[in-house]
Structure formats: C-alpha cells, structure tokens
Amino acid sequence: MKQYVVARPLYSEDAFTDEHEKIHRLTKNGVCVNCSCDLKRAKNAALSLLPFIGWMRIYQLKEWLLSDIVSGVSTGLVAVLQGLAYSLLASLPPWYGLFTAFFPVIIYFFLGTSRHISVGAFPVLSLMVGAVVTRLVPDEGPPVNITGFEGLTSDEQRVMVAASVTFLMGIMQLAMGLLQVGFIVMYLSDTLVSGFTTAAAIHILVSQLKFVLGLVVPGLSGPLSIIYTLEKIFVQIEKTNVCDLVTSILIMVVVFIVKEINDRYKAKLPVPIPIEVIMTVIACGVSYAFNFRVIYKVDVVGRIPVGYESPMAPNMQIFGQTAVEAFPMAIVGFAVAFSVAKVYSVKHDYIIDGNQELIAFGASNIIGAAFKSFAASTALSRSAVQESTGGKTQIAGLLSALIVMVVTLAIGFLLEPLPKSVLGAVVIVNLKGMLMQIREVPYLWRRDRPDCVVWVVTCLASILLGLDLGLAVGLGIELLTVVFRTKFSLDLYDGQGTGKQYAPFTIKPMCNSYSHFHVCNCQLGFNLTLICFQVGFNPLRVLRKRNKALRTIRKLLKKGELQMTSKGLLLTSSGPIEESEDESNMEELDQPTDFKDLPVQVNWNSELPANIQVPRVDVHSLILDFSAVSFLDISALKGLKAALKELIRVEVEVYIVACDEYILEKLHSCKFFDDEVKSSMFFLTLHDAMLHILEKHPVNSENTKVCEKV
C-alpha cells in the first residue's frame, strides 16, 4: 500500500497571511462589477430584457420556418381545446380560456428565454384560480361583499376575481424577477413538486366528475372540500346523464389509446396524431346533428362571443382577499414552467435565464389579466406538442396565438354545440402523467425515506387541506427533513475530513501550483452550473459537439472526401464542408463518443480535418470536495450522477473527496454506481486525490490552468 508524509511549517492564520499575498478577485456578484456601466453592458442588458432579439438574429428562415408553421398550427388547435377545458377548472365561462391562450403568448414571445414551451393555461393553476373564484363568488349563496361587484352578473364577478388574482400573481412574479430571486425555485425539490402535482391531479379529477356524469354540483373550496364534493356527487349519482357518461368514456378510451400509440411510435410518426382535436371536431358534429342539448339535456359550451372584451382594471379589495393564494400560485406557475423550459433547453442546447423567465411570466400575467385572461404558465402536454411537431422558436408560439385569434374572431360559433363532458374527458386523460407519479412512493420508501415522507405528507395535505395550504405544509416538512438529516449526519460524523493541507485558491502562490485540474469545494451542495462556470465549459455541450463532429467525419469518409494517410485524416475535396446539423435523434448526441468504425481515434485537442470546430477541454481532472455536504436527497443523487457521466464522457476524470460515510452508504443502497460512475472515484482526503492525479498526470513545465474554488 502506498503511503505519503506531509511536511510543512506550522502556520497560524496570521502567520500564513503575513507570508502569502492574498488576491481579492471580483466575482460575478461583486458590487463593482454590477454597478459599472459601459456600451457592451448596456447592449447585453437590452438583449437580456428582450431575448427574442438574440434568436431572431440567428433565425434560419429556410430550415426553421416550415417547422415553426407546422408546430404553430398544431399547438394552436390544442391550445383552443385546452383553453376551453381549463377555463372550466377555473370556474369561468369557457371562452375566457381562449383569452389565456392568446395575450400571455404574445408577451412571452418578446420577453421569454425558452424557445419551446407553450404558454397558456395550466390545469393546476386553473384549479387554484377556481378555488379563489368559488370562495369569493360561490355557486350557492351570496358573494363576498366587495366594492365593484354591484350591478355585475355572477359570471362577470367571477371574471373580475380571476383577473385580479392573476394580476396580483403577475406583480409578484415580476417583482421576484426584478429582484433576481429566481433561485427560489431551488427550494422546491422534485419530490415536493411531484407530491403536490399528484394531489392537484386528484383535485382536478374530482372537479371534472360533475361534467363527465352530467350533474349539477356547486364548486367548493377550502379544507376538506374534495370530501364534500365527492359527497354531493354520490348523493345524486342516480341522476347521471347517460349520454354524457357514454360520450366521456368513449372519448377517454379513444384518446388514451391513440396517445399510447403516439408515445410508442413517436420515432416513426412525422407528427403526433392530434387525437384530442379530432375527437372534439367529431363530438361537435355529432352533438349538433343529434341536438344533444335539447334531446338528451347535455350541458354544452353554448354561446361564444365574437371578439375580445375591453380591458379591465384589477380590484384592489380583491388583492387583499387573495394575497395568500396568489403567492403560491406565482411560485407554482414559475416552478412548473421553468422545469419544463430547462428540459428543452438542455435537449436543444441553449441557455435559459430563471430571473428573465419570472419577468416574462409576470408581464404576461399582468397584461393578460388586464384583458380578462386567467393565470398562465405552461402545460406539459401542449409544450410537448409544440416541440415534437418540429417547433424551433417562439415563432411557433406566435402562430398558435394567431390560430386562437382566428377562433375567437371568426369560427368560435362552431364550438358552441361541444358537450362540456368532452372537455372534462380530455382533461382527465391528460392527467395520466401526473397521476402515475404515485409509482414513485415505493421507490422512495426503499431508497430515501425522508423524501418519501415529504412526498406523502405534501400529497395528503394538498388533497385534504387544499393546494395552497398543502404546499405550505410540504415546504414545512421539507425544511424539517433537512434539519433532521443534517443533525443525523453530524451525529454520524467520524472526524475524518480533508484537513487543511491546501489553502483557499485566492492565495497567489498556490494558484499556479498545478495545471489542468480544478478543485471545487461544494459548500452549498452540488451545483453543476457553478462548476461549469468555474471550469470554463459545459460538458454536455462539448459532448454534443464531438458527436456532431463524428457524424460529419463518418459522412465525409463514406463519400470518399476524407481519407486516412500516414499523417492522419486528410481532406481530399476543396469545397466547403458544413457541420452535421441533423437533430433527428438528439439522444444519440448525449451518448459516449464511439470510434469503433473509424480508422483512427480522434484527438479532440488537436486540429481537426475539414475545419471542424470542437471546443477544447484543457482540464483533465476535477476534484469535488464533499467535506461540507451533509446529505443528498434523491433529486441531488440523480443530478450528481447525470453530471458525473457528462464529465466522464468528455474525458474529464472526476474525484470526490471527504464524502460522509452516511452518503456513501446511501449511494450504494440506491445503486448509484455503474460501468461509468465507479466507487473508485471516491478518496478519503483531498491530498490522496491530489497525489493520485499527480501520479497519473505528472507536472510538467506548463502552467496554463489556474485552480479555482466554487
């Protein structure tokens, strides 16, 4: 067994400071940096506030426009249907959902940073708006005494409540964006969000039963409202409208089967089959032909006014009545939209800004509320349609808004015979993804019981107490589990740490000691974004560039334009070579680089043939110091493993040091290790890992890389 001995002077803090000069570095959060202003910073500030300028400047008209048109039309048709359906969740007349599918989309086009999400009604937010609406303007009994309700019908009062709470929600989102607190979404763990959205799906399911069964059930809100709603449904179950029930079951079965076909054969289908739109058109035609409303007493959408209504100022008194509900709505709306946007930004390799997203959604909801739309975020299924049908930018979103405008101004009357039971059935089918999250509970119980407790308590509290109180309870439980796990970890701590063999890397003589590797002290937990910032590259982006380069090289070899010589690969043609932009299978770009069918292994840091450009990676090793990490939940484990794989696949060796024994045991129990991520990357101390790296990569005369600290 190899051994090492450390010999150095004994330092006090004062003695070390006297002997070594300290460098005060300006970080990106420094006051001097943020308060300075020049032409470049002013230009960047303008581009950050209007992100559409950035992607419009690189818009590829011939390649992208047709895809955006197809995507926009497809998404617009779905947005019309979902707008009508989700307005029922908000306890509003159906046509107000069309306003939500139009105004926020236009504003987000200019201010949003995501190119793929579809802005509009989101079922969870719609349900939260509906809870506020039914509390202030109940179906049975007089409304709350609010100035401004005088002379208004019940529907007009409800629209005022929905618009006012949406306006307040937008103000909160805009304020958070301007104050740069987009990081707040980090405190909503995946486990908490999963439990919350599952409970919301159950609330939505129960709320749609009255439309599926054709019953008259008043909307209820508050603690145990779901129990009282179920009681009122079962009391009058014998009054079920058979026509509504049969229509709903037929719609749900057909839509479910076709959606499964879309998922199974998505690689072979050019675009997903828009089954909801097809079934809606058929249902409208059948309902009109057989006069469902008169003969079978089916409740239909009814009259849809032509055009848009005049703007409306929010009611200040409603602000005071709904502030408690508006804040969780602002958080949930942003958290869901940001998580969906992040998935697509990683898949399509561009950057989104959380603070700018808050500004975009805040402005969208404020302006939308002025024109009587209700809370907007993004629906997962609608965003999937926009992305899977080939949407490249928010041009697709803009075109979807135009489709909604055509329906609102010209052909809305065609939807008047549509049974509300059809809308309810479509809503229920689209809950499958959220309801199936309940399968996470057994996995969490086996792998991480504190996370399982957070999931179960959040879900049950949200079901029984309502979504707003349930979210507060979930946050409280999550904070308690953090305290519990931190205390438990400290009790287990055996005193083994990194020691202080290495001073912070702000000390000048220590900066240039070693080259081509970094030491990252994960004081605030594992954060891939900060690590990418420090090492100077994004591993996933580099990996995709390398795999695209390999596609190009294989294509050139197949055409005979690239040949193997004694000096390596040599280009034989003189024409321009374009890098492969084929994105038909993005998943392949995220896999490890494969050289098995190439005559030579590519050296990525050398000059590549055919002027192929790939970012250089000068870092060969990365040390993650986990001495300050007391625990990792399931979400952190998944993120850590994904990040480690990305770094390993771009040939960066990763070492983790001073990891708590409790965390190591959890990694083994959760089957964290595989063929790529191995337990051999863990070292007892920082010095052990440093010596291992120096043995594999001896220090030479070059000093090209400065070590940093996160």
UniProtKB/TrEMBL annotation:
Any one annotated GO CC term: membrane
Membrane-spanning ranges: 65-89, 95-112, 119-137, 157-176, 183-205, 211-230, 242-259, 271-290, 326-346, 395-415, 453-477
UniProt entry tagged with the keyword Nucleotide-binding: no
UniProt entry keywords in alphabetical sequence: Membrane, Transmembrane, Transmembrane helix
Xref: PROSITE patterns: STAS
Localization per record: Membrane
Gene Ontology biological process terms from the UniProt entry: transmembrane transport
Residues in STAS domain copies: 569-693
Topological type in the membrane: Multi-pass membrane protein
PANTHER family listed in its UniProt record: SULFATE TRANSPORTER (PTHR11814)
Protein name: Solute carrier family 26 member 3
Species in which this protein is naturally found: Oncorhynchus kisutch
Lineage start: Eukaryota, Metazoa, Chordata, Craniata, Vertebrata
